[in-house]
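TA notes. Do not distribute before section.
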Amino acid sequence: MTELSKSYDTNGFVLAKNIVSESRRNALLENIFKLYCKYSGNTKADFPGIKEPWNDQSFHTKMIDLRKKNSEAFGAIYDSLKTSITLTQLVADDKIVETVATFLKTSPGDISISEPMTRLDPPNDNRNKLDWHQERHFFPQNRNGMHGLVCWVPLVDVTPELGQIGVCPKSHQSGLLKLSGKKKKNLSYTTQIPIPEEEVNKYEIISVSANAGDALFFNMLLFHKSGDNISNKLRFTVQGRFHISTAEDFIPFDYVNYYNPYMKQKLIEKNYDCSDIPDNIRQPPVALQYT
């Protein structure tokens, strides 16, 4: 681990191989499948003889079709996954937490996590894809960004066609850039706080080849962006942002309850009393949940 820690300090990122167990990954993938069945009206019977539908092209095709025809139902899957215990167990796995603590040079008990997220990125859909950016601009829990990191876990092998993460080694040494955000096209797009091209061009750009079970850890100040998914499948990934809560530059934070308005209306139509559930806008004003 000493060599990995040195590499993390120098380059701003490390790919740890085979750190997430298959059982953890499959538990989350199964939850994705069951939520798809709930919100699409399909059942396991629609995938006869398929033991793990999430590994079958037919499931990806149906998910992509749902995204096109009923984006609100697809969004309900996204929102349900935010609080899935299978996601929590994956990002809080001992191997993940111990690795985070090693790279941040602290103890596991001093770590906070914000906005763990399961991503379901369809082909040729870049509405929630960020340009080159630093994670610190979206996650201000540690003021200088050096006391936090991102953990990105692919649930499937991420081929070049699926869109691999691009990183600029050593770019974290630039510190936090003073940047301004771009106005969103509409609520279905994610706010951009892009790094100027001239800054990115100062560094080498590499694409990270990661397989299911690997985990990419990178500094909150590292220049990075996701690649384009040009395949015929969704890219299933997980990400969490970790912070040192005992650091001087840490600010305590809280989660704001968000209630999916599409599902609230569906419950009302089924005669459920939802008078205690506030009306929420579909997406927050900045991209707190995407990388």
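Switch to the second chain here.
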Amino acid sequence: MTADFQDWARSHQVRIENSLQTLLPAADIAPERLHEAMRYTVLGGGKRVRPLLAFAAGELNNANEERVTIAAVAVELIHAYSLVHDDLPCMDDDVLRRGKPTCHVEYGEAIALLTGDSLQSLAFQLLAEYSLADTPKVQLEMIRRLAQAAGSRGMAGGQAVDLASVGRALSLPELEFMHIHKTGALIRAAVMLGAYCGSRLGEARLAALDHFAKCIGLAFQVVDDVLDAEATTATLGKTAGKDAENNKPTYVSILGSARARELAEELRREAYASLEMFEAAAGRLRQVTDFIIHREF
């Protein structure tokens, strides 16, 4: 990473952290234990990749940073809710997330379930509460996109496919279908919501941006699978090797680590190609792309 990008990323990570601190309910407001669990789950961890993508897409489209911040917070809340639910014993049954005990280990399964529910509803409350776009129609489209990305045609649907795939040998297209939904849908929403906070883009530019986000969503998962297979628990902040232990199909189990890394690079090139029409305005998106592909933790 260049020093310029490191500074940019760090400043926006701090911005999103401060905004989450402010917008999450205080831990001393009733019901205290639920609000404490929400803050425990969301604050002080994660690379905030989805918010960084939203900010980068907003810069491409000259978006007001205050608008993008709320959109980025909403996306991060949906991501955090999904992690809480994914870690539950009825899903992936994991005990470590971002280097500390998972929500259900710390607070019990019932509070963890309610924590995920509450984070999801807060995300949509924020999208409805703040003025984020130039017209109500565009703001409604932002709400629709995030709702679809989180639901049965997005992240939740991908998780259902994932659960049904344990112990099965999936083809590469089947694996791609799963991750376009489970991982990719929310990443695509982050990019598009950031862009919608700015000036109006034509259909061709919106389509190019969405294709970029689709490539990045898949690349993110490919790299995640490689890291799960090769990195340590201490490095990842979550249980390493869990996919292999649970006999889950991954890009590494189907392709091997070397070919999976090649695929990530191919997706990076395709993502770059989708941004050509934006020229220099897409510089930050290219930098976040490289960060996603080349991350080692």
